[in-house]
Amino acid sequence: MSSRPETKDLLKIIRDLHHIHDYVVLLERILHEARMFVRADAGTLYLRDKDKLFFNYIENDTLFPDGKSEDKFTYTDRSIPLDKTSLAGFVAVTGQPLLIDDVYALPKDLDFAFNPEFDKKTRYHTQSQLVIPLIGNDQQNLGVIQLINAQHGGKTVPFSTMDRVHISFLADHAVLALEKASMAREMVMRMVA
Questions:
Q1: For residue range 7-62, what is the model confidence (pLDDT) as tens digits?
Q2: Sign (positive or negative) of CA dihedral 72, 39, 16, 54
Q3: Do 81 and 52 contact (CB within 8 A), yes or no?
Q4: From CA 106, how far away is CA 35, in angstroms rounded?
Q5: How far apart are CA 84 and CA 128, in angstroms?
Q6: Contact, 180 vs 28, CB < 8 A?
Q7: What is the pTM of this model?
């Protein structure tokens, strides 16, 4: 097994993200790079639209081992409410990242809860999660990166505090790249119009 990614690897990822001008490609790359950096088996990138979070991209090495592009869009028509009841919703509303060792062992008195519906439907077993907000310059939440089941030696392990620090840093820069790509897309649309 290769050694842990280092800060210089993260800086290279961020630099590469800033060179992607296609908004859609950038979204997919953000999720993929975040997932690879912390060795997560799966991940979801949610985008906010009014009072909902929409599944935008999904990757899962266990369920989609071939990584076919159509697999990434399997659940993109689904959404969750923008409220504190779900893990992603809580992070989107509060702007606070979550680092959870075992979603099935969450205390019952929390504002949020893990919904096992996806696990039951797919026979996947979610355990550890790292959920990070994507907050824009105007302090508006654009979405959430949800990373699932950190891997080490073929086993699922908890994400580390340093994983949270690194992915939060990546998310901050990803938002800058997304805002730049969005402005470029709007300028092209205006020119076409």
A1: 788 989 999 998 888 888 999 999 999 999 999 999 999 999 989 999 988 999 99
A2: positive
A3: yes
A4: 23
A5: 19
A6: no
A7: 0.87
